[in-house]
Amino acid sequence: MRSKDILWPTDFSTTASHALQYAVEMANFYKVGLRILHVVDQPIADASYQLLIVTPEELAKSMEEAAADSMRKLLARLDTELRVETVIRRGDPVQVIVDEAESADVGMIVLASHGRSGLAHFLNTNVSEEIANRAHCPVLVVK
C-alpha cells in the first residue's frame, strides 16, 4: 500500500471534495500519486415513454463531457505537487470503482460517505459501504 497510488472516486459533490483533502494528505504522506475517478452512470431509457429527445448514448456522451469539464475545474483548484491522473469511466459506480482499484493496482481507496442513517440508510444503496466490502485494498470512508 505504501508504494501504490491513492484512488479518489468523486461525484464532484461537497462531501466528495472533503474526502479529497484526506486523499491528498495520504498521497503526500506515502509520497505516491493520486488517481481521480469519476463514474458516469449509463442512462436507461424505455422506448414506451419516448421522453428522451436524444439517445441514451448521446446523453451519456454529454454527461461525460460535463464530467470532463468538472474535472478540469477541479484540477485547476487542486494545489499540489503530487502526480495526478484523471479517469472518467461509464457504468455502475460500485463495479467501476472496484475494477479501477484492481486494474490500476492502487494501494488505497479514499471516498466520501453520503452520511445516510436510519430509514434512509436502509432504503438507499450505500455505495461506499459496498465498495469497502468488495475492494481488495484498504478503503478509507470519510464523513
TrEMBL record:
Coiled coil: none annotated. Residues 4-143 form the UspA domain. Transmembrane segments: none annotated. InterPro entries: Rossmann-like_a/b/a_fold, Universal_stress_UspA, UspA. It holds the Pfam family Usp. It comes from the Bacteria. Belongs to the universal stress protein A family. This is Universal stress protein. The lineage of its organism: Bacteria, Pseudomonadati, Pseudomonadota, Gammaproteobacteria, Alteromonadales.
